[in-house]
Each structure stands twice: as C-alpha cells, then as structure tokens.
Amino acid sequence: MKKIVLALLTIFSTQVEGQNLENSLLWKISGNGLKEASYLYGTIHITCDDKLPPKAVKAMNQTKQLYLELDMDDPTLQQSMMGGMMMKEGKTLTSLSSAEDFKLVDDFLQKNLGYSAQMLNTIKPFMISAMLYPKMIDCEMKSVEGALIALSKEQNEEILGLETVQEQLAVFDAIPYEVQMNELVKTAKSNLDHDKTEMDLMLKTYKSEDITAMVAMMKESENEITSKFEEVLLTDRNKKWIPQIETIAKETPTFFGVGAGHLGGENGVIVLLRKAGYKVEAVF
Predict the structure, then answer these.
(1) Is 82 exposed, middle or buried (0-12, 13-18, 19+ CB in 10 A)?
(2) Confidence band for 62, pLDDT divided at 50, 70 and 90
(3) Which residue among 18, 115, 155, 275 is least packed, with the fewest CB closer than 10 Å?
(4) In-domain check, residue 267
C-alpha cells in the first residue's frame, strides 16, 4: 500500500489544474493592490524538529504580525477547547460502538492514556485520537506553530487567528461521529502501528516541502476522516480564509502560518489567492 501511495504522490505532483506549485512551504503574496508583501507558510502540528528554516525567519522579520489558524496565545483558548470537545445530541462512545469494540478501545486507552473509555465517553472520538499523537512519534512532540509563536514574541509582534476554536471544532461535528469512532477502533485494533506508518510518511513528505504530494497523501489515506471529508477539513475553511487574508494583508504585512495540507491542490490557499488576483510565488 505504501508503494501505491508513493506512486500516486508522484502522479499528483506533476499537475494540479495547470498551476505551477513548486516544492516549497513558504510563499510570497504580492500584487493586486498590496503595498507590501505578506507571506504564507505551511506548518505541521506534530513534529520532532520545529526549527524554522532561514527563509521563514527572514519572512517573519519582514512582516509585522503573525496569523495562525487559531489565536494560540488567547488566554481563553484552553477553556474554549474544553467546551467544544463534547459530542452533541447525547452521543457517547458506548452508543457508537459494539460492546466488543468498546472493550477493545477501553483497554487500549487505559494502556496508552491512563484513562478509561468510560471517563472519555462523551468526548468526540477524533479528540481522543488527537490525544494519542505523542504516541505516534519516537520523540518529544513539538509543533512549527510553537516555534513561530516563540519568534513572534521575541519580535514583540501580535499573534492572531483566522478562525475561532468554536469554528475549528465544529468541523468535527460535521464529520459523523460514527466515522470518527470507527477510526478510533481501527487505531486500537492495530495498536497504533498503522497510524505510526502514516505519521512517518507525512513527516517525510513535509520535510520534502512537496505540498502537492501532501494533498495526494491525504486523498489516498486509509483514514476515512482524512480521505473522505476533504471539503469539510480543508476546502470550506480555505475559501473562508481568502477574504480574511485579503483584508489583513492590505492593512498590514503579515506572516500567515496554516497547516501545510491547506496550501496545495485546486482548492488550496495558493490557487485560491491566485484566482483572486494575487501573485503567489514560492520562496526558496
């Protein structure tokens, strides 16, 4: 399966709706009335190496504020996050699974998180899967967002967000809880082996800066949340971000850091900004 995915990555990398998308995580936004350039950078939320490349540091020096997906230094962030983790309409892990699968998940969570499934019974299954991310890599978990925040604070610049916690977590109300639970059960059955394989491939693809391959990888993922709900996870959010990015960039030269999966593809932020009339070019 891994060889098939890699072959597909190559195919997808050669052509994306006629758009020239070079291998780069950093893109310069200019033209269409902008007085000064802004920058778009593809981040990764889970990594072993959060060191920013010199080109990203230079772009941060040339801009005056940092916009991430969320306002990560908002003091109410954690409280808002907790409020959006619960399932709606009385759904529970128990109601979404057979007794056999619930027992399997319960044993797995107690072993890996130290919590019983009953304690987490009302939490969205995807949120529980996210708690397992540190177990999927063989290192201390870091994030590129964390490095950007640290640098922004050194520069005494403001950190803001393109969407609210409520908007981001609502995505996981739009994806059926049953699908989320099925993926959690699959993770428990494989004892994280499959998740570790996909995570390793994602990290390698990110390091290559091949943003087109990242889109292809998500499309071909065996995780149905990733492969079958691209419109909810990426496309809808990308389209909402474009008018915000336009307004923000016209007012202040800004460094935009969003998940690298949002950059590539025909509905990615790069192509959408180009369609809106901006010059968006890779920075090497």
Answers:
(1) exposed
(2) very high
(3) 18
(4) yes
